[in-house]
Automatic annotation (TrEMBL):
PROSITE patterns: WD_REPEATS_1 (PS00678), WD_REPEATS_2 (PS50082), WD_REPEATS_REGION (PS50294). InterPro entries: WD40/YVTN_repeat-like_dom_sf (IPR015943), WD40_PAC1 (IPR020472), WD40_repeat_CS (IPR019775), WD40_repeat_dom_sf (IPR036322), WD40_rpt (IPR001680). This is Uncharacterized protein. It holds the Pfam family WD40. Keywords: Repeat, WD repeat. WD repeats lie at residues 48-89, 90-131, 132-173, 181-214, 286-320, 321-354.
Amino acid sequence: MQMQSSILKALTATTLTLSTIVNVINLTPAIAEPNPKTQQLNQVVLTLSGHQEPVRTLALSKDEQILASSGDDKVIKVWNPKTGVLISTLTGHSERVISLAMSPDAQTLASASADKTIKLWNPKTGKLIRTLTGHTNQVINIDISPNGQTLVSTSYDKTIKLWNLKTGQLIRSLKPGKISTAILITPDSKTRISGMEDGRIQLWNISNGRLLRTLIPPRPVNPMYDQARASAVISLALSPDGQTLINGGYDDSHQSLQETDGKNIKIWNLKTGKLMHNFSIGIGPINAVAISPDGKTFAIGSLSREIQLWDLKTVKVVNKLSGHGGGIYALAWSKDGKNLISGSGDKSIKIWRV
């Protein structure tokens, strides 16, 4: 119980009553700050300001014409990532927005909230399409399949739900018995990958809801007590070829007692199911992981206030990006891999030329 309580305290905020108010408004104009050294690598191209609380999640459209951001201030901001201009601010959630997902055609933006709902928006017009209800606790993760047909959601109610994105109808509700703390859908839209609170990673068949495989991390060496186990999965990233999976977790540096294996980066070979690397970089929880479009580099964000870039082949740090005044909670690559977008606890979004 101590272990589960610690994880939930680290991941959750208090859930309040769902608001019925849904508006689309423009708030204080965004501040876009071009950096004069935009041609120099590892420099901030734009800083987007306007959120009143930490930015927890980002969603970039496939054509890179729309960037959505959200977080603890309960609103969703829609930006032009090329110019930094704020297009609109979407309101309607009564609690913090924890996760965002954009459909491949950029016609639908999904938002998941601690208010137990998922809202579907038209990001271009700012209009609310519909609200999905059914979860009985905070909705903590969502993803949209690359074919644009399915929305998957996870919640602290210990269910995983699959929805028809076009109609909003619930397709299936699964009860894995543990909280799924991170999810993503594979590029072929056939498999859902769920990271669990006990460190396991499950692969599910989307079409029939069957469990295909479970990746089980090693138990801690010389655990302080019998219930110690691998860290909860906080973040997930899959390589473009679908072969390499990276998950971020805790390293116990924020706790008085060792409760997990103390390893906050795990790299898996999905073809073999083998854990290839398991190590800690000693900076607390890994809140965000993102693999570059060419599959050669992965970026990680943590409470250290800097972004680290790693070579996926050698598993060594190749660069560090500093400039945020708070922890890094969200990362997204541009499709050419030249720019990296970050959302931070300092309430800002930065676009880096890397």
